[in-house]
Amino acid sequence: MAYTWTVALLLAALVAVTLAQVKVSPKIAAIQQPIRRVYPICNHQRVVVCANNRFALDLYKNIACSVDGNMIFSPFSVSAALAMTYGGASGVTAKQMAKALRFYNMPWYCNVHKGFLALMNLLQSSSTQYILSPCQQDLRRRRLSFECKSHINFADLTQTYYLSPAENLDIRFDTANSLQHINNWVASQTNNEITNLLTALDPGTGLVLVNAITFKGEWVNKFDLTYSGPFHLTCCDTIQTTKMKFGCGYPMMKHGVIPAFDAQILELPYKGNKVSMYILRPNHIEGLAYLENQLNLAILNAAISSMTAKPIDLAMPKFSLSQTIDLKPILKALGMFDVFSAFDADLHKIGTGNAKLWVDFVVHQAIINVHENGTEASAATAVGVCRVKRATPPPIPYDVDRPFIFFIREQTSGSILFMGRLVKPEAAAATAVGVGKGGDFERFVGMKPDQVFRKG
Fold it and tell me: Where is each Serpin domain found (predicted)?
């Protein structure tokens, strides 16, 4: 019996040691643990900026085909206003808008509205060099319910992600004063540069989504000489225009060559080095059409990343542009059809009970003034929703003496804020004027991203 117990104890000890050395299979362990789905981390801001910039180039090409001569618009302003509208869309309407706005190929785990919120928070940030200060409002039509049964209330969406508080307007019974109120708001957010964004307002308008953005920047390298110089409209047609030049020395500026565009690119930074103007100058006098046709965001971003600082002997026109654009046909050309149809539009997320909503108009206005000290630019978009230093090589000549593309880009996010082209500058007197280095003005960059005007 003693022998039996000894054997039993030895076997028990052996089994215990064996079990202690056995490792559970990873596959079995995985089965034993509860399954947890891990979602990728999404940089919403970066994804939205990429979509916005793709839309910017699409918009540029389509506007360029419908507008003769000079052009100026703010793709950011248009994107922000339409993104709010997109927040109230469903079904085919939402799919068409997403495709046109370049939201359709975003990762499924990224959110458009979170991206805009992050981007606006960035653009609102201030420093000792510049200020970005938004001001939004949500104006609604009285006695018209905007409650909606969807999981996200439209008013909450615009206020949470687009910083748009609410206000009521009596559009139906006091259309004239409502129109004036909207225009006054835009004027106040654009330093009175845009005072008449809307020229008329239908009493049947349910709400108006408005975005305004202003920019005021001072060059890091100011021009101290203006003179009358040539600008080649074509190989056979040249005019004299007021051009700006550095009076002494050649500042170091980032420059690059883009063989795919058959063009060169130059960066003109504003003080603070957070915002810059870029000039895309075709290598050939009549090369603008080819450059516009070849515009591609991936190539453009790669070119910007590879630019290097070089001494630049820069001469460029002094110019001012102003333009109002009816974006409805442009957006239809980009595939945004249903939202403009009283029969097909699906904007039920905005609410208004059983009422049918559709977009009646999308109006955009932008101005820019480029001079010796810097740049001022403003833009506004309205969406009307109806119910139904070392030793350096010789300087590189960079005479902007032919039609060119320009755009203003916020450097941290890469967001294109303004974009346009100069085909024919104003003729000027042939007198050279020296401008002193004094007279600096306060640098101000103001962004008033989004306001929602609704029928009161």
Answer: 57-425
